[in-house]
Design brief:
Blueprint lengths: L9 E5 L3 H9 L6 E6 L3 E3 L4 H5 L9 E3 H4 L6 E5 L2 E5 L4 E4 L2 E4 L2 E4 L3 E3 L5 H6 L6 H20 L3 H8 E5 L3 H21 L9 E5 L11 H13 L2 E4 L4 E5 L2 E4 L4 E3 L2 E4 L3 E3 L10 E2 L4 E3 L12 E3 L4 E2 L13 H20 L13 E6 L2 E6 L2 E4 L1 H14 L3 H17 L14 H7 L1
Parallel strand pairs: 1-2, 1-9, 2-5, 9-21, 11-12, 11-17, 12-13, 20-22
Antiparallel strand pairs: 3-4, 6-7, 7-8, 10-18, 14-15, 15-16, 19-20, 23-24, 24-25
Helix pairs in contact: 1-9, 5-6
Bound molecules: flavin-adenine dinucleotide (FAD).
Flavin-adenine dinucleotide binds next to helix 1, strand 2, helix 7 and helix 9.
Length: about 425
């Protein structure tokens, strides 16, 4: 890997997501040698991936080069590397570009899509965990619109014009809302020779309401927003298979579609080399103490989505969203500084800032403790917070410009097929 041997204790961080990035920022003026490994050379702002796949934003606006975070820091190194295994006995990380030893290791690898063992869905559906995958969905949707436009077979056209999304968590809700807006604001004008009312958007959810982690009030409001926008919602419905362009469910519902987006669950992106006492097998998350130390180790930490910290307030661990990852990254950074100075470590305490989801123009829902509200004010807060947390001044400016332009003109920036759609499984393997 060509990392110099220094006399400084070496911290290896795997993953430059919300957790890893916030940790690294805290380590800038310390006397550690810090090595960041990530399989991509950029940080992805995942909450806005759905806007890339529905052509609301260009991919560059929600990504940030990892080298820019560590620039001008002589004690910090970055390598594009996919970590394959951790040899805890030898204190070595094994990657596709070679091995590296550590004094301290931080695992911040986040999650990957969970298909719950269903091979037909994994082979044939599309899903959205990375920028290449979001762009792949964009290509698929616009290719299908083109195919629908050039066929006179009504059955085939229906397949191309039906968009089916499984999972009505925030991602599924935001995606279906964005496709509904695309239909009413953009596609009508782009395809004047096509009957846009033929486009159907179906949202399938196993629970009895959309946005199951939110309050009932916000769920009901989000459902009403979606229905008003023409999204067809199927609650208490479980997808069984997706093959030959047909979605079958465990009930009577069957839908023929060329666009099936799976957003029904995630599992930890864990790395091999741990016993089940440290890496909880069903959840694929590392069990950590209040200092984010992985059970059974003094020198290995896990933060963010991949970590499971059971506390009195959070007996099942913290939610797998950005805030716990950001806060754990910052707290661990402070603890590394405390270790340098011989001070006591701070136990992690989660400050829950609430949840929010946007459904469309002037339509969002917000839950902050007992306070729940929806509509324009919620949408405004959603926009402000997402701009605030986007990494990089340039990204904030570009995103703000794009949103303002879309708001005024009822237009979307990037409805382009830059590269042809590939099966998502291939994209995931290449990615
Ligand atoms: C579509 C979508 C929408 C979301 N919307 C919201 C939202 O609205 N609000 C919210 O709070 N949260 C949202 N989340 C969740 C939020 O993005 C995560 O909780 C957050 O990213 C977790 O941060 P993390 O640092 O743990 O992992 P991540 O941010 O996922 O970062 C993990 C990093 O590890 C790298 N990596 C993984 N495995 C390896 C390996 N083996 N070798 C090398 N590098 C590796 C990855 O490339 C990545 O850079 C959303 C997630 C998705 C997918």
């Amino acid at each position: 890997m060509n990392i110099p041997d220094s006399q400084k204790p070496r911290i290896v961080i795997i993953g430059g997501g919300f957790g890893g990035m916030n940790l690294i920022k805290k380590l800038k003026k310390t006397d550690y040698q810090v090595v960041l490994l990530d399989k991509r050379n950029f940080h992805t702002f995942q909450p806005l991936l759905y806007q890339v796949s529905t052509s609301g934003l260009e991919p560059e606006s929600i990504a940030y080069p990892l080298r820019k975070i560590i620039r001008n820091q002589k004690n910090m190194h970055f390598r594009i590397a996919e970590v394959k295994r951790i040899d805890t006995a030898l204190k070595k990380v094994r990657t596709d570009i070679g091995d590296i030893s550590y004094d301290h290791l931080v695992i911040a690898t986040g999650t990957r899509t969970n298909f719950f063992g269903n091979k037909t869905i994994e082979e044939n559906a599309v899903w959205m965990k990375s920028l290449p995958q979001a762009l792949n969905i964009r290509s698929l949707m616009f290719e299908n619109l083109e195919k629908a436009n050039r066929t006179n077979d009504p059955v085939k056209r229906k397949e191309f014009l039906r968009f089916v999304i499984a999972g009505a968590g925030p991602t599924g809700v935001e995606l279906s809302g964005a496709i509904a807006e695309l239909r009413s604001n953009v596609l009508q004008a782009d395809y004047p020779d096509m009957d846009i009312s033929e486009i159907e958007i179906h949202l399938i959810e196993g629970a009895d309401r959309v946005l199951p982690p939110f309050s009932e009030k916000s769920s009901a409001k989000a459902q009403k927003f979606l229905e008003d926008m023409g999204v067809i919602i199927h609650l208490e419905t479980f997808v069984a298979n997706y093959e030959n362009n047909r979605v079958t469910t465990k009930g009577d519902l069957t839908l023929d579609t060329a666009t099936f987006i799976w957003s029904a669950g995630v599992t930890g992106a864990s790395i091999e080399g741990f016993e089940s006492t440290s890496l909880l097998p069903k959840l694929n998350r590392y069990k950590v103490d209040v200092y984010n130390r992985v059970a059974g180790f003094e020198d290995i930490y896990a933060i963010g989505d991949i970590a499971l910290m059971e506390t009195e307030d959070w007996p099942k661990g913290h939610p797998q969203v950005a805030q716990p990852a950001i806060q754990q990254g910052k707290n661990l950074g402070k603890n590394f500084i405390n270790m340098e100075k011989g001070k006591d470590l701070n136990p992690f305490e989660y400050f829950d800032k609430g949840s929010m989801a946007t459904i469309g123009r002037n339509k969002a829902v917000v839950d902050i403790g007992k306070l729940q509200f929806g509509g324009f004010f919620a949408w405004f807060i959603w926009m402000f917070i997402h701009l605030w947390f986007l990494v990089g001044f340039r990204n904030r400016v570009v995103t703000f410009f794009n949103w303002t332009y879309s708001y005024i003109n009822y237009d979307k920036a990037a409805r382009l097929i830059v590269r042809p759609f590939k099966q998502n499984k291939i994209i995931a393997e290449e990615d």
